[in-house]
Amino acid sequence: MRLSPHPARRTASTLLVLALTAGLAALTPAATATDSPAVQGVSAPLAAKPYMGWTSWSMQSSKYPGLNPDGDYSYLTEKNVLKQADALAAKLKPYGYEYVNIDAGWWRDLDWKPRFDAYGRQAADPGRFPRGMKAVADDLHAKGLKAGIYLPVGLEKEAYGGGGVPVWNGDGCTTADIVYGDLRTTNGWDSAYKIDFSRPCAQKYIDSQAQLFADWGYDFLKLDGVGPGSFKSGENYDNVADVAAWQRAIAAAGRPIHLELSWSLDIGHAADWQRYSNGWRIDTDVECYCNTLVTWENSVEDRWDDTPAWTRHVGPGGWNDLDSLNVGNGEMDGLTKAERQSYATLWAIAKTPLYTGDDLTRLDPYGLSLLTNREVIAVNQGATPPARPVTPSDDQQVWAARNPDGSFTVALFNLGEAPASVTADWSVLGFTGKAKVRDLWNRENLGAYRDRIAQALPAHGSRLFTVTPQGGPVLTRTAYEAEAPANTLVGNASVADCGACSGARKVGNLYLGGKLTVNGVKVAKAGRYVVDIAYVSGDARSVRVSANGGGAVGHKFPSTGDWGTVETVSVPLDLKAGTNTVTFDSGDGYAPDIDRIDVPNLA
């Protein structure tokens, strides 16, 4: 969500740069972030599970007719916030939605001119919030809801006041004492001066802001424009010290306040976001800044590419934030019904906060059903770990998570532009035989399926299942190392050390014609085999995979986040009885590094 009065439309996808642990074992509860720094931090109890609620920004930023009649971003008013709060309390609160988050502009008038108090702290614009921010929080609490508020990171330029503005409770500090002397700028819009936390007065200023919000009764703060991230990098845009200062200030303020960071945070600092905050936006704004709230192309669909590398960095205390879930208003959302369900499915299985930016006073029946499906909400809010893709990031994808009771949450997605069938093989989940399948969106049992389930899906469609194995034989696999001497390397392909890889080695430099052929792959009978491929890739890369010199199929592997982390996806291959070859061909591009392949042993 952007602070600028005229936000630019999104122009690039975020490349994510951290990864999941290898194999489906990464989906077990033991592999989620129970040992993350966020769990150990003082704020951990605030985010025991992803938060649920409503945010003002989607309607503020939309050009949908009638939403902002007094100019851009004019929707944000006390009256409109409380109207949405009434609807939230009546329609969604019984399902767990409780936060009402006021976004950018609460201290700015309709011309976007800011208002500050005598201590350089943002103050409510009387045109938007005539009773002030405390009265709004009190009203929200009276409805059994929680109140959220917003700030950009740094000292806003307009608050500097020539350096002579005193800091509340600051022992003689002024704004000149909290920033760098050269007035270097920071945040995603360069709208603030960077705070110098080597100066004692700097923490005093953050303390004064946190105390103000605590005194007003706020339960949630979104800190926006944070870097590294927000499409900015370099020393000026490193706001880790700001986030740490906010954590300290909140701890001293005497009121628990959930600290959420935005936007497109650098995954290279995932440990910092976990340590100091309760949530972090992994991507840019989901809003399209057009005549709907969102569109599929800008930028809902990007989340399938951008989410996987972050999945292992969540758990009680801190969660990946995919931005608002705008699926409740039909035409105003700008999506088909199939797209709305897929959007909600990914948010649920990724265990991202479920907060909508819809107009809650006019939810359509289908949208209400998506937002209030208790079985889907339970996937997001319960002990189920976040799902990850178990197939490549092609148009047809399968995501899965192993549940504590031994069942699996399985989502099928068709991200293509035409209807297509999507198949989930039980072998990628680690078992064979029969499994019971429950359809979570339709809340019905589908019976038992042997070895797999295949579904015909519309364009951008999805299904969401609970799959429960029925005691079939345990699936075993035979591993074939990429670096084995008997394999064939072509072009620049070469063996390299890899501490995270099995055998501590991998085959890399698969680019511009580089190839790896794994030789001597033996199976007992001819057939279709779903082969696990363990790989390393600092960004999303494509590779052509073939068996026995047959037709190669191109697959895009999700980023593992860096060049030392291993992940696994599964691809189907037709193998003959006896000895086979499996080839990875970079073609005219750059392919991921290959650790090994695991071939199922089928009777």
Q: DSSP strand (E) fraction?
A: 25-35%
* Proportion in helices: 10-25%
CATH class of the largest domain, named Alpha Beta
CATH superfamily of the largest domain: Aldolase class I
SSE class: alpha+beta
How many domains? The number is 3
- Please work out how many helical segments DSSP would assign: 12
Instruction: Count the E strands.
Output: 30
Average pLDDT: 92
Q: What would CATH call the architecture of the largest domain?
A: Alpha-Beta Barrel
Low-confidence stretches: 1-44
CA gyration radius, whole angstroms = 25 Å
- The largest sheet has its strands arranged as 10-9-8-7-3-2-1-11
Gap between N and C termini, in Å? 53 Å
Shape: globular
Q: Major sheet, described briefly? A: 8 strands, parallel
* CATH topology heading of the largest domain: TIM Barrel
Question: In a nutshell, what does this entry contain?
Answer:
By secondary structure, the chain is of the alpha+beta class. Helix 7 (240-253) packs parallel to helix 8 (270-276), helix 10 packs parallel to helix 11 (365-371) and helix 10 (337-349) packs parallel to helix 12 (374-381). The longest helix has 17 residues, at 200-216.
